[in-house]
Amino acid sequence: MKNLSNNSIIYGAGILYLICVAIFTATENFLLMVIPFGLALAALTFLAMDKVLWFLLLSTPFSVEIYFEDLKSAVGVPGEPFMAGLLILFILKIFVEGKFQPKFSAHPMSLTLVIYLFWMFFTSLTSSMPFVSFKYFLARLWFVVVFYFLFSLLLRKKENLKTFFWFYMAPLTVVVIYTLVRHIEFGLTKQASTWVMTPFFREHTNYGAALAMYVPVSFAFAFFIKDKLWIRILYFIVLGILLVGLILSFTRAAWLSVLAATGVLLILVLRIKWYTVVAAFALLLGVILYNWTDIYMVLSKNQKVSSDDLGEHVTSATNISTDVSNLERINRWKSAIRMFKERPVVGWGPGTYMFQYAPFQKPHEKTIISTNNADLGNAHSEYLGPLAEMGLPGLILVLAIVLQIFILGHKMYNSELNHETKVLVLAAFLGLITYFSHGLLNNFLDIDKSAVSVFSFISLLVCADVYYMGEKKKNS
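User: That's the sequence. What structure does it adopt?
Assistant: Structure tokens below.
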């Protein structure tokens, strides 16, 4: 009876699809062809959600953005239409069943993300540009629902872990090879590195962030996952490709984020107490603030600018006197802080920074790449952006998410999970460390290629805490 019911749905949807296509073609209402396409997506999502989730993971590195002039918005194809369908299905599921994986949904991380979304919704209501904010909120809503909540249906099963990582890492490796081939054609220059990854990535910083997240994952497979010799050789090849891609992305923030993840790994391996790390960090910060005038004078003498020379490119990271990229970041950060001071509680509204920050720039802080046209990006910070757009509560919620990631990572390292599972879970944790340390200098959670990894990696940590650890306790 169940098969008969499913067949009836398939046949009914197919007939309705053909009728819609015929009518809209005959009347030349080609824009309305979106309706039958949407119906087909809805049917596929309803009948085979797991396959849609795997497809999303596999296709995201290859997705491209199509800009719709009428909507003044870009849509990631093929992923975002599927995400919209999955979001609708998730909402219907909650209304019908009244719950979604109770143990997973009751986890502190899940509750924090829900509060984060509610606050984003509220600040969209109070936004200086409500239409912009609600579009931004909707995109963030389906990212969290799909990549965090729905992906938990796949990640709760440990046997899916290898497949999960490779369904994104394999196509990402193909994109890196494509990028390297194009980059070689243009002489491996820094200038070419900013665009050779198009159309798959917007530019090199987003590309570098994605690669940095998967360097710990590929490293874990190459050095710690036992497999057949030829498969392990393949693991090392992929690690090499991702490392070369990361280096030639000329993304300093991504390079530094991998070093940050390495530092966190050393803290775990050496079993240094976290209160010791926090105390050391606080002491270092105090020393820097106390001696800031002298430090600023030293940094001002650094004249190295970003260039094709990798050595000079690294040292230019501390050039705050002549490096345009660094100076523009500082300009954006100061503008974000001024915006926060004017609207400290609810901010200016999600997604509005790029439209509102221009009046908050100071003439003497602007650079040759500064703009007043809302066409050159955001606050370049995963922390100051929410502070300006969603006020102090927005920043606190982001910090609460990051803090819980650290707590879960530490817990997983000290757990009794089997070797392979622990290695893969920790790889996801270190991948998140690269992203949120990179987040000090850039923010990409509005892009599907970053959001899929960030929220699904967080989902994996929570699944490990809720399900994997639960299995261990049950078997002990």
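The chain has a mean pLDDT of 84.
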